[in-house]
Amino acid sequence: MSSTPLPTARTSAEEDPGRRASVPRLPALPCAVLCALLFGALLTLVVLRWGPLMSLDASVAGTLHRTAVTEPGWTRLNRVLSDWVWDPWTMRAVLLAAVCLLVRRGERRLALWVAATALLGTGLQQAVKAVVGRDRPVWPDPVAFAHYTAFPSGHALSALVAGALVLWLLRRTGARPLWRWTARTVVVLSVVGVGFTRVYLGVHWLSDVVGGWLLGGALVAGSAAVHGALASRPSWPGTARRAGWRS
Question: Compositional bias (Polar residues) spans (predicted)?
Fold first, then answer.
């Protein structure tokens, strides 16, 4: 009489699509460290007012501002995109929708993690602005106005944090490739686009925008790395349940 073979656990990524979707394409911790180091270097150059960087900022800002003054129609479009479509409050609304969806799915801990990451980003941005105290560009014929200090750009940071968190959630939940590719396209266009509008409208220097991107990237990558490390522990709530689903 033949014996019945015992069930074996699936270990291949091909047998477990949910597990495959949760594996990041880039290591989160090295990305966080790289972004943090680059942000620190840029911050140092801004504080020291390094000549080549100041010259580059002034050249880019001046060129775009001359276009903004002579092209009012294009300038109005950039103001709509900057002040409404890619405004930080719009980005916060996107994350709020994601948090509400996670709560509805019963993933309250993950929802809290996303909300905390977003709030930390806002706090870091305001703290760095206050410490650096960099002046915004000043023009005799401004086409837009902005409050607070310049470095780093809050618009650039908010767009990157919101976009990166959404992409992280889509990959983590195993969303379909079409959804992920669509989201990536929208996020890239939004992050690059809002950076362009802030410099074009004359309210930020180019290095302010790059600083916002780097600080936002360091934050989200670091948050994903810490979450991944905690979620892999047996003591993390839900670990045993997820293991049961995959057995």
Answer: 1-11
